[in-house]
Amino acid sequence: MEIKDYYKILGVPETASTDDIKRAFRKLAKKYHPDINKNPGAGDKFKEINEAYQILSNSEKRKKYDDYKKYGGSPFGQGGQSGGFNFQDIFGNSQSGGVDDLTDIFSSFFSTKSKKRDSYENLAIHLQINLGFEESIKGIEKRIRYKRSTTCPICGGTGASRKETCPSCRGSGHINRGSGFFAINQICPTCKGTGYIIKEKCSYCNGTGKMMKEEEKTIRIPSGAREGDKITLDNYGNSNGRVTGPLILYISVMPSTVYERDENDLIRILDINLSDALLGSEKDIDHFGKKIGVKIPVGTNNGNKLKLKGLGVKRGRYQGDLYLTINLKLPKKLNKKQKLKLKDFLETL
Ligand SMILES: [Zn+2]
Ligand SMILES: [Zn+2]
Questions:
Q1: Closest ligand (CA of 161)
Q2: How do residues 186-239 score in pLDDT, each as one tens digit?
Q3: How far away, in angstroms, is 252 Cα from ligand 1 center?
Q4: Tens digit of pLDDT for each residue in 24-55?
């Protein structure tokens, strides 16, 4: 039996502290609580989140669950892998820190980067990229179009095609109120601190100093992208003339009707008949357009799992496997003759 991944449900790493888990739960609960979220399915999602929280927030239950996940039942429970992509081609030279490992880029949804300044965060543009299941497995280039605000190239953000030095502050942007000991230095109310007065508005930006620029970019999504992955592209967000925010892309993946994904492993069902099970056989399956030959060993049972090494998801330096869950299809009906023959045969066993 497969074990539910409570960490994945809450979007936290297996090393998460109790506080991290509480935070993640609160955030998700706010999003999916049936009182707030009226979408069908939100109730079920909330139940799942709550279940995960009940287990992981209790240290004793959590330990049991971890042990069970590690040693019991499912061969898929390793988890915990992340990252490992080389993403430099997207970042070009704009990345100051030289980050070439995707642990940083495909970082958790819930991590907050406190080192970023507020203005930087406020200037961020958030976009969602929708991927088909196969696209997420194989990787793909996506063309995206979006609008971002930049400074007007004609007036350079001043909003003026003709300006004069502010007479109140003589261009400093500040004035002194009061006198002597009680003088207060404040922002000039005439020019609001810019130091100039607009005599004629820039016609290009209508005096705002800003303009919306349409951008078109090709984003290379590496193979193995997952729901909730986040790609941050520095310097592609909105600009206020001094600071340019990031463009943040959130990956959303359509579920597959054939495959289930567990970390980097893929799982699908393989139907076999009684003859395949008893005598063994070879079957071809279509695996993302590639024909794969599968050997069914003699005596394969319903529910058995066949492992095809290296045919799972490639995510950075990690390579998962493909598991085929055997679904034995028995004949629904036998006629008299068949029954007699089968009886004869079974008596020989
Ligand atoms: Zn302008
Ligand atoms: Zn002034």
A1: 1
A2: 899 999 888 999 999 999 999 888 999 999 999 999 999 999 999 999 989 999
A3: 38
A4: 888 888 788 776 777 878 878 878 888 888 88
Q: Compute, in angstroms, the gap from residue 163 CA to the centroid of ligand 2.
A: 12
Distance, CA of 265 to chain centre: 17
| Ordered domains of the chain (ranges, CATH) | 6-71 (1.10.287.110), 88-153+208-253 (2.60.260.20), 160-201 (2.10.230.10), 260-332 (2.60.260.20)
Q: Which residues surround ligand 2, an ion (CB under 5 A)?
A: 166, 168-169, 188, 190-191
Q: What is the pTM of this model?
A: 0.56
Contact 235, 246 (CB under 8 A): yes
User: Ligand nearest 187 Cα, by number?
Assistant: 2
- Cα–Cα distance for residue pair 254/227, rounded to 1 Å: 8
Q: Ligand 1 mean position to 189 CA, how many Å?
A: 22
Q: Which ligand is nearest to the CA of 150?
A: 1
Q: Cβ–Cβ contacts within 10 Å for residue 337, how many?
A: 8
